[in-house]
Design brief:
Helix content is about 20%, strand content about 30%. It is α+β, with helices and mostly antiparallel strands and about 300 residues long.
Length: about 300
């Protein structure tokens, strides 16, 4: 397995979060549409060979790693507490800053010069529900809101990381381009979720490190026996099956809820095997439907008494 870094350029609003499991699902549909169902079924039958996929992050940024609490935190002054709270709201770290301090990563090394805010601002629009019997907007109780991300032209680049065989680099670019051209996630038929793939490169710089002590997850995944001393935030995921199944065959559109770790989780290696797993039994009536909960994990060393 190798690590690829893909640079995506958003070409308009996006209505669904660029989350790892959702991206993998869209890549599967892209494979089915471009190569047929048989290659997809064969690939999904071999979970150990499935790609690991990250969330898509602002260009040149990584999720902020969760680190052990500082031993001297009780000695903080009121001003330092205020500063720490302000920095705590910054969810990303500059890739360059992470690489520079990955041999002894600590809260002190992740200061304001290395941390980044979330540049995306959600845009909320009000909608009114339609009464299916009359075909008209409801007079009462029909108002709801939808959130979309409208990226700025100068902040539309995203970095996506994929773990897979080195021979798959061309296929990574091909399938991502298919997804970007068709539209990712909700409201794709209305032009949402379009992006362009600028390049796909092997990322040996981020992938390799001598004598790491911990790993940083770039994905939304599960905790498995190969992971120990896990620091993470847990988030529920309410997945949906593709319309190709739900509309044509009458299957439920909703998968069972899952609890997954958010990007930024850190852990040590506790055994052989991949971090995370291919989840099965996630749909009430379609046992062949699964969810990619593998972690794209990058090594680092935490500073002593960080």
């Amino acid at each position: 397995m190798g690590l690829f870094r893909a640079r995506l350029r958003l070409q308009g609003p996006i209505a669904s979060p660029l989350a790892s499991g959702m991206i993998f699902g869209q890549l599967c549909w892209a494979m089915r549409e471009s190569r047929g169902e048989a290659p997809l079924v064969d690939w999904l039958a071999r979970p150990d060979e499935l790609w690991g996929v990250s969330d898509a992050f602002p260009a040149d940024c990584l999720p902020r790693p969760m680190l052990a609490p500082r031993a001297d935190a009780k000695a903080d002054t009121p001003q330092s507490v205020t500063d720490r709270k302000r920095l705590g709201k910054m969810p990303f770290v500059a890739r360059e800053g992470f690489l520079r301090s990955r041999d002894a990563l600590s809260g002190q090394s992740l200061d304001h010069t290395n941390l980044r805010e979330a540049g995306d601002k959600p845009h909320r629009t009000a909608r009114n529900s339609v009464d299916r019997h009359t075909g008209r907007a409801r007079d009462e109780g029909g108002l709801f809101f939808r959130s979309e991300t409208w990226p700025r032209e100068d902040d539309a680049a995203r970095d996506l990381y994929i773990e897979g065989p080195l021979a798959d680099r061309e296929r990574v670019g091909e399938l991502l381009s298919h997804v970007g051209g068709s539209g990712f996630g909700k409201s794709a038929s209305l032009g949402r979720g379009r992006f362009r793939v600028e390049w796909v490169r092997e990322d040996t710089e981020l992938e390799r490190m001598e004598r790491p002590t911990r790993y940083l997850s770039l994905s939304r995944g599960t905790r498995t026996a190969s992971m120990a001393d896990v620091l993470c935030r847990i988030e529920p995921h309410f997945g949906k099956a593709g319309p190709q199944l739900t509309l044509g065959e009458g299957a439920s559109a909703f998968k069972r809820p899952m609890l997954l770790t958010r990007p930024g989780a850190t852990f040590t290696r506790a055994g052989e095997g991949r971090f995370g797993e291919w989840l099965t039994g996630v749909h009430p009536t379609r046992p062949e439907i699964g969810h990619n909960a593998f972690h794209v994990a990058i090594p680092f060393a935490e500073a002593p008494h960080a």
